[in-house]
C-alpha cells in the first residue's frame, strides 16, 4: 500500500484535501471518485525515513485506546451525534497521530457512503473481526450505542484477564533470568580463579567440584560460541513459531505444561464463552459466532477446533455434540452448552461460563504466584549455595591440612 495526497472538489463545489492509502494511483483516484469527488491533483507522499518507520512501529493503537474509543462513541451516539461527525470529533482528540489518521479515514469512508462496519473493516490492525461483526449486528438491529457499550465492556474484561495472566509471569521470568545471569557470571568469572588455586595445590578434588570446574572451563572457552548458538536457536524458534505448524506445536506444548497449561485452558475458555455470548446477544448466528471467535481467540489449538467445528455445525450437528470429541474442551463446557441448546438460552449459559472461568483464572493465577515466588527464590539460593560449596569446601580442606 502507498499513501497519496490529493486535492479535490466535492459535490457542493468546495475544495477538499487529504490523504488516501491505495495500491497505486489509479486505485486511489477510483476510490476518491466513488466518494463523489472530482480529483484536481494527486501525488504520492514522500517516503518516510528509516528512523520514522522504526518509530512508527512503536506508535500503535492499544487495546485501551479502543476501549476508550468505544465508550466515547457510545456517549456521542446517545447524544444523537451523527456517525461521521462523531468520528471527526474523536479524530481531533485522538491520543496519537496514527489513531487520528485512522479515525479520519473512517469518517471519510462514512461520508462517501460506507457503513460504519465496512469503514472499520478497512483497519483490521485496530478493529478485529469480532469488533466489526458486532458493529454490523448493531447496525442491523438499530442499537449501535448499546453495541459499542457492549464492546467496551467486553474489551475491558478481556484486557483485564489477559494482563493478569501476563503479569503473573513477569516475576518468575525475572527471577529465572537473574538466576541464569548469576550462574553464568560465577562460572566464567569467579570459578576459574578459584579453580586455579585448587589445581595448583595438587590435593585431590571432590567429584562435584571437578564437574563444576569442567563446566566452568567449557563456558569460559566457548562463551561466545554459546551466546551465538543461543541467539541463533532463539531466532530459529521465533521464525518457526510464526508458521502455522509452529503456532500449533507451541500451543499444544503450552497446554501440556502442568498447572500453567490449565491456566491457559481456562483463559481461552473464558475468552471463547465471552465472545460467543456477546455475539449471540447481539443477534449474530452461532455459525458466524464460531467463525469470528476462531480468528480472535489467540491460540492455534482452539482456532483449529472452532474452525473444524464450523463445518459440522453447518451440516446441522449441535455445537455441544461437535465439541464433545475434542479433549481440549472441558466436559463442563460441553454439558452447559447442551443445556443451552435444549432451553434456547445459549447466550446466558455462555455468559455464566465466562464469569466462572474468569474467576477460575484469577484464583489459579493467585495460587500459582503464591507458590512460584518462594520456589524460584529457593532455587536461586540452592544453585548459588551449591557453587560456593563446591569450591569453598576444598579450600577449607586445604587450609585444614596446614
TrEMBL record:
What's this protein's name?
Answer: Type II secretion system protein GspF domain-containing protein
The cross-references to Pfam families, in alphabetical order and at most eight, read: T2SSF
What keywords appear on the UniProt entry? Answer: Cell inner membrane, Cell membrane, Membrane, Transmembrane, Transmembrane helix
State the similarity comment. Belongs to the GSP F family.
Membrane-spanning residues where? Answer: 169-191, 211-238, 368-396
Which subcellular locations apply to this protein?
A: Cell inner membrane
| Domain Type II secretion system protein GspF: residue ranges | 70-192, 273-394
Predominant subcellular localization, coarse grouping = membrane
Membrane topology reported for the UniProt record = Multi-pass membrane protein
Q: Which domain of life is it from?
A: Bacteria
CC annotations in GO: plasma membrane
Amino acid at each position: 500500500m502507498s499513501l497519496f495526497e490529493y486535492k479535490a472538489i466535492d459535490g457542493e463545489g468546495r475544495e477538499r484535501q487529504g490523504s488516501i492509502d491505495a495500491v497505486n494511483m489509479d486505485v486511489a483516484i477510483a476510490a476518491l471518485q466513488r466518494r463523489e469527488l472530482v480529483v484536481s491533483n494527486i501525488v504520492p507522499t514522500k517516503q518516510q525515513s528509516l528512523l520514522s518507520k522504526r518509530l512508527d512501529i512503536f506508535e500503535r493503537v492499544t487495546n485501551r485506546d479502543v476501549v476508550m474509543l468505544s465508550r466515547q462513541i457510545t456517549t456521542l451516539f446517545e447524544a444523537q451525534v451523527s456517525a461521521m461527525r462523531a468520528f471527526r470529533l474523536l479524530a481531533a482528540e485522538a491520543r496519537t497521530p496514527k489513531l487520528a489518521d485512522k479515525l479520519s479515514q473512517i469518517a471519510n469512508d462514512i461520508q462517501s457512503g460506507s457503513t460504519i462496519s465496512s469503514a472499520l473493516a478497512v483497519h483490521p490492525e485496530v478493529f478485529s473481526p469480532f469488533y466489526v461483526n458486532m458493529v454490523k449486528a448493531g447496525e442491523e438491529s438499530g442499537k449501535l450505542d448499546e453495541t459499542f457499550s457492549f464492546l467496551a465492556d467486553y474489551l475491558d474484561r478481556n484486557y483485564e484477564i489477559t494482563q493478569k495472566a501476563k503479569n503473573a509471569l513477569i516475576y518468575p521470568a525475572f527471577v529465572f533470568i537473574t538466576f541464569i545471569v548469576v550462574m553464568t557470571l560465577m562460572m566464567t568469572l569467579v570459578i576459574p580463579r578459584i579453580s586455579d588455586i585448587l589445581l595448583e595445590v595438587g590435593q585431590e578434588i571432590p567429584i562435584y567440584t571437578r564437574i563444576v570446574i569442567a563446566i566452568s572451563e567449557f563456558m569460559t572457552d566457548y562463551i561466545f560460541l554459546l551466546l551465538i548458538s543461543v541467539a541463533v536457536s532463539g531466532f530459529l524458534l521465533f521464525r518457526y513459531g510464526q508458521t502455522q505448524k509452529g503456532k500449533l506445536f507451541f500451543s499444544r506444548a503450552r497446554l501440556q505444561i502442568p498447572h500453567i497449561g490449565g491456566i491457559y485452558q481456562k483463559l481461552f475458555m473464558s475468552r471463547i464463552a465471552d465472545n460467543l455470548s456477546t455475539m449471540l446477544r447481539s443477534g449474530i448466528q452461532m455459525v458466524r459466532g464460531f467463525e469470528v471467535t476462531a480468528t480472535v481467540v489467540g491460540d492455534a489449538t482452539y482456532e483449529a477446533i472452532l474452525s473444524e467445528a464450523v463445518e459440522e455445525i453447518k451440516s446441522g450437528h449441535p455445537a455441544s455434540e461437535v465439541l464433545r470429541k475434542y479433549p481440549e474442551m472441558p466436559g463442563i463446557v460441553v454439558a452447559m452448552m447442551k443445556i443451552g441448546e435444549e432451553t434456547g438460552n445459549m447466550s446466558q449459559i455462555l455468559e455464566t461460563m465466562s464469569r466462572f472461568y474468569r474467576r477460575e483464572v484469577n484464583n489459579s493465577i493467585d495460587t500459582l504466584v503464591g507458590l512460584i515466588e518462594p520456589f524460584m527464590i529457593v532455587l536461586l539460593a540452592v544453585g548459588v549455595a551449591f557453587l560456593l560449596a563446591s569450591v569453598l569446601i576444598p579450600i577449607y580442606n586445604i587450609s585444614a591440612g596446614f
